[in-house]
Amino acid sequence: MYQEMLEQLGLTHNEAKVYEALLTLGATKANNIALEAKIQRRNVYDTIKTLKEKGLCSETKEKGISHFTAIHPQRLGDMLREKTDLLEQAMPSMTAKFGAQAPDEQTLVLKGIEAIKTFYLDMIREGEDLLVLGGRGNWLDPRLQYFLPKMERERIAKGISYKHIFYHDLKDPKHPNHRITKILKGNKYRFLPKGFTSTCSIEIYGNKVASMYWGEEPLVVVVMSKQIAEGYRKYFEFMWQHCEKGNA
């Protein structure tokens, strides 16, 4: 039930299986853990050792026999905060080094859902209003169901506004992604004419223009250039003025 989530939090495959087994069984012996977690008994002891080092497992002895117990899951939150504190301490110097090396103009290619999350967070960090041409409601992809609320909270906190020119298909209330036109707070949107739907979209923010293809493995190409971004904004505004109104 929790294995995938635990692995995403940084536990190894076996650590996630053993910790979940401990949550299920309570104080128990190694052979019971092996049966519940479906891993070999000899691997249980190695995994228990690393869980103890991470503060996720304790050991007691009853009549000379070891029994193992899961530490409260709140420890997982403590581990994340510890990592966050370490990162925050290093962030100023890391950012300074990155800024000194980053060119004013460059092109980045990002592939895969995790890379796309990085791209979306970059939009928030940029702190500029976002223009989207050819919006498809990609943010409703199930793989982003926990990510979008976090992104929206940060976007609203920074006062970043959206303007979407959606594909005409999304105007239909029966379209699976139609609700994206309503759930983004403060979003202004219009619609392209029929017949201009594609699998691609263009996103403009700050000095960056991103061309995105959304498929099983999403792909985005980000061009960093003040001149190109300014040019695309003019194209966007022309199309905004000539597209069918949604709520703006």
Draw up the topology in text.
Elements: H1 3-8, H2 13-25, H3 30-37, H4 41-53, E1 57-62, E2 65-70, H5 74-101, E3 106-111, H6 113-126, E4 130-135, H7 147-157, E5 162-166, H8 180-183, E6 188-191, E7 200-205, E8 208-213, E9 219-224, H9 226-242, E10 244-245
Parallel strand pairs: 4-5, 5-6
Antiparallel strand pairs: 1-2, 3-9, 4-7, 6-10, 7-8, 8-9
Helix pairs in contact: 2-3, 2-4, 3-4, 6-7
Give a description of the structure.
The chain contains nine helices and ten strands. The radius of gyration is 24 Å and the shape is elongated. The chain has helices at residues 3-8, 13-25, 30-37, 41-53, 74-101, 113-126, 147-157, 180-183, 226-242, and strands at residues 57-62, 65-70, 106-111, 130-135, 162-166, 188-191, 200-205, 208-213, 219-224, 244-245. The protein has two domains: 3-75, Winged helix-like DNA-binding domain superfamily/Winged helix DNA-binding domain (Arc Repressor Mutant, subunit A, Orthogonal Bundle), CATH 1.10.10; 102-245, Endonuclease, Chain A (2-Layer Sandwich). It has 248 residues and is an alpha+beta fold. The protein starts with a helix and ends with a strand. Strands 3-9-8-7-4-5-6-10 form an eight-stranded mixed beta sheet, with helices on both faces. A two-stranded antiparallel sheet has the order 1-2.
